[in-house]
Structures are given as C-alpha cells and as structure tokens.
Amino acid sequence: MRLWQRSVFVIIMLCFCVLSAIQSLASSDIKEPNVAGQFYPSDKVVLKQTIEKFLAEAHPSSIQGDIFSLIEPHAGYEFSGPTAAFGYKSIQGRHYKTVVVIGPAHFFPFAGISIYPQGKFHTPLGDLDIDSGFAAKLIDPKAKTAFIPQAFEKEHSVEIQLPFLQVVLSNFRIVPVVIGDTDLPILESFAKNLVKAISQRKDVLIIVSSDLCHSYDFELTESTDAVTLLALQHMSGREFYAALREGKAQMCGGFPAVVALLASKMLGFDKVQILSATNTALVTGLKVKGQWTVGYAAGVISNAKL
User: Fold this and answer.
1) Count: domains in the chain
2) Which domain does 103 fall in, by range?
3) Are 2 and 110 found together in one domain?
4) Which residues are CB-contacts of 120 (< 8 A; sequence separation ≥ 6)?
C-alpha cells in the first residue's frame, strides 16, 4: 500500500471511530431519575399500582373536544397524585406521539429555557425516548433557548410527570423543557417556535408542570389559588404573565403556563377547564396557621365547547 493510500485509510478509520464514539455516546445518554423513592415509589410494581389506584378514583368531567395541554402538579404523589390523576385520566385512550413536558427550575437559577436534546429519560416503569427532531426545532440560542444540562441535574418538575404518562399513553416520545427566570418576549418566541414545530400535527401534547401558591397560611393559599385559576381561565398569556410578575397569581410553573396559553391560542385551543383543585391542608387535614401549605390543581386546555 502506497503512503498516500495508507494516509487515506488512516483518516477513514479515524472518522469511523469518531462516528462510532458519537453513536455510542448518544445511545448511552440515559437521564436517571432524581426523585424516585422520594416523590414516588421506586418499585415498578408499586408505582404502577399507585398510579392505577389514583386513576380509578378520579372522575374528571368528560372533555368532548381535542385536548392540547394538561396543567399538572409536581409534588410528592401522596399529596398531589390524586389531583394529577384527574388530568391524566382525561387523556387516557387518546393518541399522542410527542409530549412536551415543561417545568420550572427549582434548583439551578438561570435565565432562559433549557431543552434536553436527545437520549432517554429513565423511570422505574422503563425508558422514554426523547423526540430529538422536535427538540431541535425548539432550540434557538438567540432567544435564550438551548440545552443547559445543570437545569436537569436535580430537577423534579419534568420527571414527576413521566410515570403518569407511561401508564395512560403508549408509543410516544418526550421533549423535556425547564424554564428559568425569563421575560415575556422570550416566552412568546418559544411559544411561536413550539407552534411552528407542531405545524398541522394533532398528536402533540403539552404538559404544564406546576404547583400553585406556597404559604404558611392555608386560607391565603386557598384564596390565592382561586385568583390564579380564574386568571388561567381568561386564556391570555400576556395578562397571566403580568399577574405572575405582580404577585396576583402564584404558580411555581407560571412561565410554562404562559407558554401553553400563548401556543394554545395560536392553534385555536381556547378553553381552560379546572378538573380538580386542592392543597396540602385539605389532603393532610392540618388546617393550622403556620403550617406550610401548597396548592395543587389539574386542568386541561382544549377546544371543547363548554
């Protein structure tokens, strides 16, 4: 073999090795759960039985139209699981191929939006593939939308929704999204990119992962949640963003909700229905001033005629 031939051969082999390494890295990119065994059971059988029990006991209002988005709590299942089941039961038996799960950042402070671009998310019920093609359409560094790994390292807001999805749906992929402290133009830009990525598809579901008011006064939590849920039902992303910034509405996943409201309106989904609402004081029976109380609600955004 001549020298130039050997050189070409070496280059080809190096390229092959690099490509193999990239493929191997991609195939092994599995995001392990952060809160299995804490927020929900880590045992596969117990976890599935727990969710199925929640679903069996939930009796949401029937939704006749198409459901585009769910609003779901993200606390420990013992507190918010029964409420979450109301939303998830409403999509049981429906067909979605891509589920975009949007949660807030609890542990890593950042400005912008982080999208997990490829690989799998693991739960005790198995692995969920990421819809990398859909995720790529949402990434826009100019609009502060990129993959920020630290946003997912300890975060539970996306993860907590996955086992419920695995029980009520089949043959779907996910797009995990975490939103940090973000201004309205960035949220509007992201909502437009989301709508563009969805295009004419009818098999995309948006999950808004959010708890409601957090306070040491259960009466304040209840009254604030009532204001927040009413504001959501007005279906105005801009007005809801203003209410969040002014402190009139309280949702730790408020910015994900703004994105869902904006995108829903663009696609003709204009109804918010609250299926269930509660708080930790009602769940535990500890209606005591000074006791930490968190509000939970499950709702749907649809085009149903009310």
Assistant:
1) 2
2) 32-302
3) no
4) 29, 30, 31, 127, 128, 129, 130
Dig out the tokens for 218 from the structure: 């259960």
Q: Are 199 and 271 contained in the same domain?
A: yes
Distance CA(187)–CA(174), nearest Å, equals 20
Look up residue 281 and give its two tokens. 């004081």
Fill in the amino acid letter for 103.
Answer: G
User: How far apart, in whole angstroms, are the C-alpha atoms of residue 124 and residue 35?
Assistant: 11
Q: Residue 155's closest CA among 109, 186, 191, 120?
A: 109
Other beta carbons less than 10 A from residue 275's beta carbon:
21
Instruction: Give the pLDDT of the chain (306 residues) as one tens digit per residue.
Output: 554 444 444 344 334 433 443 443 344 489 999 999 999 999 999 999 999 999 999 999 999 899 999 999 999 999 999 999 999 999 999 999 999 999 999 999 999 999 999 999 999 999 999 999 999 999 999 899 999 999 999 999 999 999 999 999 999 999 999 999 999 999 999 999 999 999 999 999 999 999 999 999 999 999 999 999 999 999 999 999 999 999 999 999 999 999 999 999 999 999 999 999 999 999 999 898 889 999 999 999 999 876
Task: Tell me the sheet residues that pair with 208.
Answer: 71, 102
Are 24 and 36 within one domain?
Answer: no
Residues 64 and 86 in one domain: yes
Assign residue 128 the CATH number of its domain.
Answer: 3.40.830.10
Asked if 128 and 174 sit in the same domain, the reply is yes
| Domain co-membership, 75 together with 204 | yes
Q: What is the pTM of this model?
A: 0.90
